[in-house]
Amino acid sequence: MALLLREFTKPASNYIDRRELGRLSEEERARKIEAIQTAIETSTTLYVGNMSFFTTETQLYELFSTCGNVRQIIMGLDRILKTPCGFCFVEYEHRSEAEDA
Prior knowledge:
By secondary structure, the protein is of the alpha+beta class. The chain is built from 4 helices and 3 strands, in the order ααβαββα. Helix content is 36%, strand content 21%. Mean pLDDT is 84; it is low at 1-5.
């Protein structure tokens, strides 16, 4: 469980699709980067990976609701079989709750 914790004062990943930004002017690029950073800083959604394929949405809700009000859980599903494939997104009501998780 300790591996899931990280320091939230560090900036989030600075990945930006360079192909898209390459086509923009310098002003548009700066605005786009600022918008992306703002979205990351205000996000209430967590990515959870490396889960068992047998994990259910109910189990996830029970676990993550201990940290706050869960708005929704979106589970990644196999395209063909429609079974869980080991990852999900958990969306909270408030940023502080997501940081607690």
